[in-house]
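Why does residue order matter? Because the sequence determines the fold. Keep that principle in mind as you read this record.
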Amino acid sequence: MKRFINTLLALALLAGFVLPFTAGAADAESRQPLTFYIISDTHYYDPTEPQPGEGGQIDLRYSAEILHAAVSEFLAQEESDILLVSGDVTHNGNRIQHEGFIREMRRITEAGKRMYVITATHDYGREVSRNDLPGMYNAEFGYQLAYSTFDDFSYAVELAPGYRLLCLNSDQSYSDVMMEWIFARIAEAKAAGDVILAMTHRPFLPPADFYPVISERDMLRDYDKVSTILADAGLKFMFTGHSHMHGIKQKTTAQGNTITDITTGALCGYPAPYRKIELSGDTLRVSTLQVQGIESDLKGLTLQEHLQHNFTGMLTVLFDAMANDIETFAGMAGAFSVSRETVMENKLLFQTMGRLFQRLKLGSLRLLLIRVDSSVRDVQVSNLLVEFVGNLYAGNRIYSLDTPIGKPLFTLAKRLDRVLPIVKLFNLKLPFESLTSLFGSLIYNPISDTLGEFAL
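Structure:
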């Protein structure tokens, strides 16, 4: 695989020389503006199934209602007839869940609008196999509009004149043959002067710097090399899901080509987000919307308030268990892509951290001669962690070095980074290069996670 990827990289660079990207100013002016919407990780759970308990990052009890409301909001707008769904459409692949999800999608096609769907690992199980999925979805929801297909799952479509989309329907990795197919489609688009976009399920770039440390298995396999190859071949934008985090991440290759991963949070999770993508001239604009409400009574709360209450409540229990009940913590950590094995192998570290988080206030950093603004000295560290994790999933990483909360935390991380060379002297292999970057990505993203403008 490594030799194949390196060969593809060389071919990509050669194609970039032989087939230069021709979508310049004249092409940008000739293309009509295009708008489409994206939802991800709907985790449809049928209301007639046994009801799950309260609490959690997603709320399966209302996933069907949330999807129904999102489809209604999409149908109500008149500026776009295109909706993308980037996988994990059901919660565990039960047939009744697929039937309910398909009913909602038919509301869209029956209204004369278009659907482009990919599926993922949550969409097959005991009742529906992966090989059943093409027969359930390909006849209606995007695949039938393809100008090129691969292996009954992945497909390429023309969204509008001058715009093409690759729907990369793969559970975790792209085979050698699939990479060849992807590369050929990019080359075709470049030769035609068309904008080429792509959608896949698993993160193409880490949604935060620490993500591969705790859950590299949830990334696209060989993501670093594959993203480099495709960026240098001419792919600039990938739409993803899976992590349930709402964010935007960029990478610039050694050749100076930038690729942007726009990941959309789980529709049935806090804060019920979905994306609006607008392409006009030489600019791609991203904005975030939230499902406005559902029919069920949420005890006087808005949908966002209800989902946030569930999520923060679970996080509070999680951090308490981290300090006081490591078995419970190990069982809950899987919701955040941390395996039970990882927790139990490092339980002393987790317990120590959990107890520190509960006891410390931000002002405690003054004992390390770190200046802390008086307005935030009494903030409990455990409460901060609840907020940070919630912000990561909602797309609100706003605590930069210039904020009262961010400044002392970044200062602490920089001081700890000075110790890392000493740690490495003992031949201890660390899964990161910089604590500043690792921790900083939890609380701050220099690119807005929820909106922005990018050059096509």
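Residues 301-359 form one domain.
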